[in-house]
């Protein structure tokens, strides 16, 4: 079920060609034709205003731009598509019910699928409750790690950074530090996938919960830098919202205002729900 992540540029190019429009026509009064060409070919990342204008001209439904990859939980395509749909729509209560069905569990046939299953089960368990049982969620995440391959995959890193965040929420600083270090070890050498942005964001959120504001801001900024370099927008609204909170907490009014504006822009552009941590 794992699909190739599309870039913003490839989405724009595909929409333009489907409408039989030249680059010059699409770019008129928005940007130069060479700039549009650079965007389509992944050599330039458009800012939010430029991206909105191009999407509107091409009639692209911004709700459909979902770039982060999901992972297969079994061999049946229908099961995996359901997991993907429920995750993308943030329907975690329904996802939790779905994952507990016998036919879903019986479809799991490999260690990687087992790992993905327990990861999604932990996320659904956490998100579906107003007062999640953090100890139970940590147990589920450790079951996911028990099926992890020897190599440090992106999915394994996601599990580790989720363990770090859950540990931080439970005020277990030593465990938090351990899992945070494991999740981010040599991450800059890891081939980019859109879910790398999630790891940087959860790292920043974990450090935020530990009161490590400088480290949190650095992780958030690095995540934005890496994602932008690979033409990905995933989680930008949430990252900028976190940066706004950090700026507010440190009396940096100008940075707070700019981050808030960017968070709203990306949230409206991609219909991205924004998690608002207590501060």
Automatic annotation (TrEMBL):
One MF term in the entry's GO annotations: DNA binding
Residues in HTH cro/C1-type domain copies: 12-65
InterPro entries linked to this entry: Cro/C1-type_HTH (IPR001387), HTH-type_regulator_Rgg (IPR053163), Lambda_DNA-bd_dom_sf (IPR010982), TPR-like_helical_dom_sf (IPR011990)
SMART domains reported in the protein's UniProt record: HTH_XRE
Domain of life: Bacteria
Pfam (any one): HTH_3
Record protein name field: HTH cro/C1-type domain-containing protein
Protein's organism: Lacticaseibacillus paracasei subsp. paracasei Lpp7
């Amino acid at each position: 079920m794992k699909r190739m992540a599309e870039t913003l540029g490839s989405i724009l190019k595909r929409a333009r060609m489907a409408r039989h429009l030249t680059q010059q026509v699409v770019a008129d009064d928005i940007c130069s034709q060479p700039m549009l060409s650079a965007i389509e070919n992944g050599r330039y990342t458009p800012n939010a205003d430029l991206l909105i204008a191009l999407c509107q001209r091409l009639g692209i439904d911004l709700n459909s731009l979902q770039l982060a990859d999901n992972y297969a939980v079994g061999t049946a395509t229908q099961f995996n598509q359901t997991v993907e749909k429920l995750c993308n729509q943030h329907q975690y209560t329904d996802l939790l019910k779905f994952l507990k069905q016998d036919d879903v569990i019986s479809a799991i046939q490999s260690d990687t699928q087992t790992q993905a299953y327990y990861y999604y089960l932990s996320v659904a368990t956490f998100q579906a409750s107003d007062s999640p049982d953090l100890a139970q969620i940590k147990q589920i995440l450790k079951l996911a790690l028990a099926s992890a391959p020897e190599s440090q995959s992106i999915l394994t890193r996601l599990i580790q950074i989720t363990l770090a965040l859950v540990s931080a929420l439970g005020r277990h600083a030593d465990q938090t530090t351990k899992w945070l270090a494991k999740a981010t070890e040599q991450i800059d050498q890891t081939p980019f996938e859109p879910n790398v942005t999630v790891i940087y964001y959860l790292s920043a959120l974990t450090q935020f919960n530990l009161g490590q504001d400088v480290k949190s801001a650095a992780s958030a900024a690095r995540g934005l830098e890496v994602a932008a370099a690979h033409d990905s927008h995933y989680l930008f609204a949430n990252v900028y919202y976190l940066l706004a909170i950090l700026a507010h907490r440190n009396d940096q009014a100008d940075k707070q205002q700019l981050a808030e504006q960017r968070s709203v822009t990306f949230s409206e552009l991609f219909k991205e729900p924004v998690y608002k941590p207590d501060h």
